[in-house]
Amino acid sequence: LDLRAEDIETLEELGAGNGGTVCKVVHQPTKTIMAKKTIYPQSLLDSPALINQIIVKTPVDQPSILTPQSSGEPGGSSRPSRSVSTNLVNKASPQKSLTPGSHTDVEPTKYTETPSSTFVRVHHQTMKQKVDPKLLVRRQIMREMQYMHDCDSRHIVSFYGAFMNDGDISMCMEYMDVGSLDRIYKKHGPVRQDVLRKIAFAVLDGLIYLYDCHRIIHRDVKPSNILVNSMGQIKICDFGVSGPLIDSIADTFVGTSYYMSPERILGSPYSVKSDVWSFGMTLLELAIGRFPLASEDGQSLAVFELLQRIVNEPMPTLSTDKHYTPELKEFISMCLLKDMELRPTPADLMQHHYLMVQEKVDLQQWAKDMM
Ligand code: ATP
Ligand code: MG
Q1: If you take atom 30 of ligand 1, which residue's CA is the nearest one?
Q2: Which of 54, 168, 177, 305 sits most deeply, having the most CB atoms within 10 A of its CB?
């Protein structure tokens, strides 16, 4: 779909997260109902530290021209410098076209060159044509988002396209009319266990698909990123689009998440096993109907305390004295193994006996009850 801002009419706001807002919209030319997520990269891009890290990643032979103009932000230049070029994946697939007019003054960068030269080239363009580097970053993000078109799984929310409007980036995805699992459990209490098993299967299957077919690590598994529709389908959304730039932003800048694994907190790069941790935390939360890492009196913890608890203290487990099965308890505990080496991969988990139970569950009826 060739999406343009002027063709999209907003119907209602569905929610807002850390980096943006999600609205229910209609794409007028096709009358398609979609969910539009608008992210505001402005604040991110205004950070000299980010410019430092990302756009102006220095191939060693080009240091001076690639130095950012400003680095007024305290600490901005003292961040450990991760080399973007080591992150780059050479994606030689043809570039798909974006919204007409979205890159009129600069040729699209082709990923057929060596990784670092891609960045060098962006910089040459910046220098030559005095194009705002922030604009180039936005465009690069848009390009990388195009890869989401290739994701096609029944457990992944479909992607319609992305466009840029006044510096904001909007992406349109399948609208899931029952909403996200955090809303569901906050309204209706802990998720039924037969349904929970179906959710576990759907999320794992989605994660395996992303990784096996596209080498994408989700990076943000949590209840608000698992969506349900009235047909009873369960799909994951908001996965880390994989591209050199977005990878780099994510590894460097994506802030603290309550679902972060110990190794992530300690600074290692993402891996599929970090997704497994977040997945375990998510299942536990859905099973008990509250975020598992609260203080004794149920208050949410300060970020630092939370992080130190994840790294240093034993993780909560399900008590089997309630109606939880030992299989579920074991399944979650395996996801929450602090040692990444010992923690299973999504594919390993698929073989776990918790998921081997064949049971008919009327998910459509459940979804209707949750609406
Ligand atoms: P965070 O910003 O920390 O990731 P979040 O996932 O809640 O939190 P958003 O991704 O911006 O933030 O989503 C906001 C809300 O919009 C979600 O909680 C969800 O309820 C709703 N939402 C998101 N995508 C869709 C969709 N495709 N269909 C229906 N509702 C959606
Ligand atoms: Mg989300």
Answers
A1: 179
A2: 54
Please state, in angstroms and as integers, the Cα–Cα distance from residue 42 to each residue in 21, 45, 149, 232, 250, following that order. Answer: 14, 5, 25, 37, 16
d(Cα 143, Cα 118) in Å, to the nearest integer? 13
CA 241 / ligand 2 centre spacing (Å): 13
Contact 18 CB / ligand 1 (< 6 Å)? yes
Mean pLDDT of 134-159: 79
Distance separating alpha carbons of residues 11 and 112, to the nearest angstrom: 41
Length of the chain: 371
Question: Distance between CA 191 and CA 182 in Å, rounded?
Answer: 10
Q: Which amino acid is at 241?
A: V
Q: Is 78 helix (H, G, I), strand (E, B) or coil?
A: helix
Q: What is the full DSSP assignment across 35-57?
A: EEEEE-HHHHHT-HHHHHHTTT-
Cβ-proximal residues to 277 (8 Å cutoff; 6+ apart), any chain: 259, 260, 261, 262, 264, 335, 336, 343
Task: Please state whether the predicted TM-score (pTM) of the whole model is above 0.80.
Answer: no
Q: Is 136 in the pocket of ligand 1 (CB under 6 A)?
A: no
Please state, rounded to an integer, the average pLDDT across all residues of the chain: 76
ipTM value, please give it: 0.98
Contact 346, 272 (CB under 8 A): yes
Q: What is the pLDDT of residue 72?
A: 33
User: What integer pLDDT is reported at residue 244 of this predicted model?
Assistant: 64
Strands of the sheet containing 226-228, edge to edge, are: 179-180, 226-228, 234-236
Kindly give, in sequence order, each residue whose CB lies less than 8 Å from that of residue 134, ignoring residues fewer than 6 positions away: 41, 45, 51, 55, 167
CB 205 within 8 A of CB 153: yes
User: DSSP letter at 176?
Assistant: -
